[in-house]
Each structure stands twice: as structure tokens, then as C-alpha cells.
Amino acid sequence: MTKKKVGILGASGYTGADAVRLLARHPDAEITALTANTHAGKTMSEVFPHFFMLDLPRLVEWEKVDWTRLDAVFCGLPHGTTQEIIAAVLKANPAIKILDMSADFRLRDKDSYAQWYGHEHRALELQDEAVYGLTELYREKITAARLVACPGCYPTAVLLALVPLAKAKLIDVDDIVIDAKSGVTGAGRGLKQNTLFSEAGEGLSPYSIGSHRHSAEIEQEIGAAAGSAVTVNFTPHLIPMARGEFCTSYVKLNGATPDDLRAELEKAYANEPFVHVTKKGVLPQTQNVRGSNYVQIGVVADRIKNRAIVLSTLDNLVKGSAGQAIQNMNLMFGLPETTGLEQIALFP
After folding, report:
1. Which residues make Cβ contacts (< 8 Å) with residue 213, sequence separation at least 6?
2. Are the beta carbons of 154 and 247 closer than 8 angstroms?
3. What pTM was estimated for this model as a whole?
4. Whose CA is closest to 341, among 2, 15, 13, 25?
5. Does residue 153 have an active-site annotation?
6. Active-site hit among 75, 150, 153, 247
7. In this structure, what are the phi and psi dihedrals at residue 75, rounded to the nearest 5 degrees?
8. 83 closest CA partner among 9, 187, 4, 191
9. pLDDT tens-digit map of 227-280
10. Best CATH choice for the domain 4-129 from the list 3.40.50.720, 3.30.230.10, 3.30.70.1520, 3.30.470.20
11. Strand pairing of 245-253 and 171-182?
12. In a 10 Å sphere around its CB, with 0-12 CB exposed, 13-18 middle and 19+ buried, how is residue 16 labelled?
């Protein structure tokens, strides 16, 4: 098979760099274009020295790429700037496959997008076309899609843990509390005071309490599974490690037991290559998935009657972003879904 020619928009960010790391050893993909307007003209190894051994194209401004020569593009740009650029790329090459890792096409409702992101959507004609790219839930639609909106890292961890339970009516979707923690790469590579080592290290800090934009994705998808509008209590925290994510979801049971929840999750993911439900008494840990495309989910009985605690963990840059995007690309091109993604977690 001829290798698919792929480009990465925003290759100088953490998600873009992890897409490069994974695609560089993908047997059916060839990286032929890398963009980063602020670093245009540099080699990738000048921006990320750990790529010293790779022969990669130089970083260029996105306007200078010949999109007609590419089969797929991964977008690692910030929300708000992505919509118009993707529209321009698709205008230049309507047959290209888009794997968007930003938030710009995740929300189906245009009013919801405007509410959470502070401005009207600038590519509504594409928003209706976009498929939400949580692979395990939308595999068939992703396979036939041209534009896939890959989920945020928090929603991926939460939704994989809770959607099967909501769909089976085992939990009360009006009583969900999510305590989430992410490594500092989740905040991006830009210089921010709260992610400086001396401020983020040796501490744990909540942020965007009651207003984090990923809440909208979580509510959209749990609501779709439950068949009703849902509002969740979601609080994210910054934890002093480079990568990784852990979500603890507290749920009220609908006449079910914690063992019922585990059995439902085991049934839902019995044939999934990247989602692992732990045995009773075994707890997920970020160390078990670091650097990999795997997700671990566990269920524990709460000491409060009729409640359970659902635990989920993933690597925010892999299954939470670039890895899931590549998983979706594989589907879109009819490749084995696991191609280029079977790395074992880095431990310790």
C-alpha cells in the first residue's frame, strides 16, 4: 500500500509533537508537511530536540503548504483559529481527511459553541458535517467521515467510563460528580505563570471550576446516551507531572450494584483494543498508560449506600489527543485500527 501523505497544523505544540512522534513510525503514513507560523523556517529538532534522529520537513506557515498533495491533515491549533483554516484546507482539497484535535467542531449545537467559546462559529457549514471522534462510540461514522472532531482529553476519559453506564440506565445521570486531574501539558506549550515549574511543582491546583469548556462535551455525549439533557459537576485540577490524566467519577446507582457497573463496562469493551476494565480490587493508575494509547477503567463501591466510584485514566497527549486522532485516521483509510499505536506504557 502506498503510504498516506499527512500534514500537521500546529506541529510546535505538545499535541502536534506527539502526532509527529507516533506518525514517524507509522508504517502507512509519511509526514510531508509541518506548520508552525511562529517557528516557520526552523527544523523540527530545533523546536523539539528529541526528534534529532528524524528526517522531517521544515516547519512552514500554513498558507505555504500545497494541500492538494496531502491525504490527511492533523490539526493541533488552538480553538478559534482552527475553523477558518480547516475551511481553507478543504476548499483547496475537498478529498483530504481532517483530524481536528482542537475544540472547534466538537459541539453539535451552534448556540452551545458560542456560549462556551465566546464567539459565533465561523464555519457552520462544516460543523454539521463533523463527526465526534470518540472512536469506541462512533466507529462507523468516523470510518465514513471527511472531518473528525477528536474529543478533549477529559471527555475521552470520562465518557469511556460513563457512557455505557448511562446508556444501560445503571446510573442516575442527574447526579454525577467528576473530579479530574491532568498533567501540565494539557495547558499547552505557551508560557503561562501557573504552569511554571516553581508554581505548578509540589502542589495541586483546581482551575475553571464550574466553567470548564469540556463540561459541554461531557454533557452532550452523556445526554445523547441517556436520551435526556444532562448537567454534570466537573472540576479539573492541574497536577505536577508532564503527561497523564486521572478522572474520578462519583455516581448514584439506579438499582444496580458496583459489580453490575463493572460487568456492563466489561461487556461494552470486550473487543476494544485500547480500553481495559480492571478486575475487582485492581485500581487504575496513570503509570499504567503513560505514553500509550490505552485507557484503564475501574469501579469501586462507595461506602455511601447506592453509590459507586468509577475511575478512569489515560495519557492526555496520546489517547486524549494525538493517539486517538491516529486511531481515527486508521479507520478513515481502512487500515487496521491499532496500526502505529501499540506502544506499551512507559514505566516507571
Report:
1. 103, 116, 117, 152
2. yes
3. 0.96
4. 25
5. yes
6. 153
7. -110, 115
8. 9
9. 999 999 999 999 999 999 999 999 999 999 999 999 999 999 999 999 999 999
10. 3.40.50.720
11. antiparallel
12. buried
- Phi then psi for residue 297, to 5 deg, are -130, 135
Residues 319, 289 contacting (CB under 8 angstroms): yes
CA 275 to chain centre: 14
CA 4/CA 7 separation, integer angstroms? 10
CA distances from 322 to 54, 72, 176, 244, 316 (A): 18, 14, 28, 13, 9
Give residue for cell 512522534: 21
Q: For residue 163, what is its C-alpha cell?
A: 457512557
Residue bearing cell 438499582: 255
Q: Which regions of the chain carry the CATH code 3.40.50.720?
A: 4-129
Report residue 298: phi and psi, to 5°: -135, 160
